[in-house]
Amino acid sequence: MITTAAENLSLFGRDPWWLIVVKAVFCFAFAMLTVLFSIVWERKVVAWMQLRIGPNRHGPWGMLQSLADGVKLMLKEDVVVKGADKVVYILAPIVAAIPAFMAFAVIPFGPADNEISVFGTRTPMQLTDLPVGVLFILATASVGIYGIVLAGWSSGSTYPLLGGLRSTAQMISYEIAMGLSFAAVFLYSHSMSTSQIVASQQDKWYVLLLPVSFIVYVVAMVGETNRAPFDLPEAEGELVGGFNTEYSSIKFAMFMLAEYVNMVTVSAVATTLFLGGWRAPWPITTFWDGANHGWWPLLWFTVKIQLSLFFFIWLRGTLPRMRYDQFMKLGWKVLIPVSMVWLMLVAAVRALRNDNYDFGRIALYVGGAVLVVLLLSLVVDVFRDRGRKRADAEADAEADRKPFDPMAGGYPVPPLPGQTLPPVPRRRPRGERQLVPVNGENGTGTTNGEETGDDH
Amino acid sequence: MTQTTVGIGGAAEGTDMVLNIGPQHPSTHGVLRLRLVLDGERISSAEPVIGYMHRGAEKLFEARDYRQIIMLANRHDWLSAFSNELGVVLAVERMLGMEVPERAVWTRTLLAELNRALNHLMFLGSYPLELGGMTPVFHAFREREELQTVMEEISGGRMHYMFNRVGGLKEDMPAGWTGRARQAVAAVRGRMDVFDKLVLGNEIFRARTRGVGVLDRRTVHAYGVSGPVARACGTDFDLRRDEPYLAYGELADVLKVVTREEGDCLARFECLLEQTHNALDLADACLDRLAELPPGPVNQRLPKVLKAPEGATYAWTENPLGVNGYYLVSKGEKTPYRLKLRSASFNNVQVLTELLPGTLVADMVAILGSLFFVVGDVDK
């Protein structure tokens, strides 16, 4: 395996200089076009979810809306606030935007074995590949977030500062979960090079083999790109615009661009690592052998990216924003432990397979272990619930025992809900009631008077 | 929390971050301003600064006659215009000892409840929006549109109805209006699932609101908080039941005073939601009753110059957002000597000083939204 990886990588880096330029421009253009399309697509889809029409003024079906928006933003007045740290303030959007594109250098758009020919030169459908391609992607993604942090800090204003701080914490906690989800993929593919990872998904995509890793990655990628429901650094309802509050014109456009390019990038990574990369989906490959050859892989790759982007849009249209501390809790207390345990499990299974245990027994061991853990947690839950219920019952009994005293505060007050008045002393039956004398000793005189009154 | 004070001479200044929420901020629905002192993201003290929208309504009342006042009075809480008008005309009618035709009473009750549903739908939509969920507000506005069409047809206004007159209503319902009103109510009720299930059932929504901003009953009583906000803390008080005006006395079996015990943001939202359902039911009950009533006048003939006799009265109504009262003092002139306005939001918003300290900035938005206020009602 290791030797084949090296062989495959040897196909890269042999292009003539003009082809490298063409490919680099293609990567940039692909990212830009996908962004331009996905902004319009997002606005359309969200509009449908919200019973609106969405943009329809610029171009057919509003397709040129994001282009028009871009031009508008460039022509707007560029304000640099007085309290800003000018150098960092201008640098921040650039730092945010450029690394977003860089990850595309190692994303495979098609098979690596020189299948296509550009002006007579046969070449792989990938700008380049590295033995540590995925680490390169992680690195560029983290650099991009510096742009947001620096923007928040350099604006010299309160809302951006809070947004920047949130972004810092978000980056730290979600990079870890993301890295852990990648590690399981590395264990299966024996490689960190993207072309190799796609190549090793020939039989089964990793989304089927490593579902937990995929879910962790999906959550982490939404967190990483600051998209709803994890758009805490922007949080327009709380922090107005978050880190980009003080930005305008082209600098603001750069942040928007960075956000959307990041979305495309993480979608491309998800596709490459988990969704079989440029491979055609299952039913197509059964009847069409050519689906994974020539230029066709580009189509499957684009479709998968678009589906992933639709998922982002869907989330934004349906979910409210999480709270900052809940989000941190999700990262540190759920995603990281879960992916740790999962990683251990994957490693154990790999090790057992390397020792030639057959799959059935491995499944038995793993299934048994999972079952035991689940049972234990169930038992613990039952007992904890029982304890809580007992405590509640005791507290209730305590409250019941203490009688309600309407005069406790010095004034008579009605009982609050849950409290009951002490029982009213019952009146004695009518027959036993004694007549109360009104005028001193003569008690019967009044009753006589009333009777005479009735007679009238 | 430690507060460090650094400075020389008179220039002493705390090092804690002071965050101004508003007057222009997306979650304040207008121009409410909150001055927060932050320790990290935790709020250590909060002070609502109000008055950016003060229009001197009470002073303006004193220079208008009773017909013109209605127009002014329905503007302070622009989401419950009908109920605002109602308070004024009830006060003047009481001063005059005027009897309102039964048909007008029932129509008023109906419109007040439709207005309540309209108001609540606005907040049912805007509250998820503040928590970051964009979609429900559009669905809320679709429902509002249904009801607004009906209201527009009867009164000509979509927000400021100007349909109340001293002694009744401006005019009778258009032909066939009740049928269309019934359809609108049924349509809105049929789609309330969006809020019952999609919004209220959302896990993130519940996590953001449960146990957040818990308001206890003592604070409610101390600050004079009213309406759904107060009822969410178990304060079982609703003027429609406890001091019935209009036809509410006869609607006792339909009217349901919704209360919750928890007092948190979720309870407030639940109260609002259930109250919307109840408002729709009440509207239906009013429509049923109107169908049985014989045709008759809906207003009284008024003199050219309407003067309230010398004296004072206080008319309070259960507005959608809480208790709304008018204290009317007349010296027998055609304008009131004084018309004091007690608006619900004014009291409800003050409780923020108690609620906010100790919470996070993100919770601030959740709490602010769950107090269901209209800035015009705060600033008058």
Kindly summarize this structure in a few lines.
The complex is a heterodimer of chains A (456) and B (380). Chain A has 456 residues and is mainly α.
Strand and helix layout:
The complex is a heterodimer of chains A (456) and B (380).
Chain A: H1 2-9, H2 17-49, H3 65-75, H4 86-102, E1 116-118, E2 121-123, H5 133-154, H6 158-189, H7 194-199, H8 206-209, H9 211-224, H10 249-273, H11 282-287, H12 296-318, H13 324-354, H14 359-401, H15 444-455
Chain B: E1 5-6, E2 13-14, E3 17-21, E4 33-39, E5 42-49, H1 57-61, H2 66-73, H3 81-96, H4 102-130, H5 136-155, E6 164-165, E7 168-169, H6 177-190, H7 193-199, H8 203-209, H9 217-223, H10 228-231, H11 239-242, H12 265-292, E8 311-319, E9 322-330, E10 338-342, H13 344-350, H14 352-355, H15 361-370, H16 375-379
Antiparallel strand pairs in B: 1-2, 3-4, 4-5, 6-7, 8-9, 9-10
Helix pairs in contact in B: 2-3, 3-4, 4-5, 4-12, 4-15, 5-6, 6-12
Fold and architecture overview:
- Chain A is mainly alpha-helical and 456 residues long.
- Chain A has a domain at 2-20 and 69-282 and 291-326.
- Helix content of chain A is 63%, strand content 1%.
- Chain A has a two-stranded antiparallel sheet with strand order 1-2.
- In chain A, strand 1 and strand 2 (121-123) form a beta hairpin.
- The longest helix of chain A has 43 residues, at 359-401.
- Chain A starts with a helix and ends with a helix.
- Chain B has 380 residues and is of the alpha+beta class.
- Chain B has 2 domains: 3-49, no CATH class; 57-379, Cytochrome-c3 Hydrogenase, chain B (Orthogonal Bundle), CATH 1.10.645.
- In chain B, helix 2 packs antiparallel against helix 3 (81-96), helix 3 (81-96) runs antiparallel to helix 4 and helix 4 runs antiparallel to helix 15 (361-370).
- Chain B starts with a strand and ends with a helix.
- The A-B interface holds A 46, 49-52, 158-159, 161-162, 165, 228-229, 231-232, 235-240, 316-326, 416-417 and B 17-20, 25-27, 41, 128-135, 138-139, 142, 202, 204-205, 207-208, 217, 234, 236, 259, 261, 360-366.
- Chain A: Residues 392-456 are annotated as: Disordered.
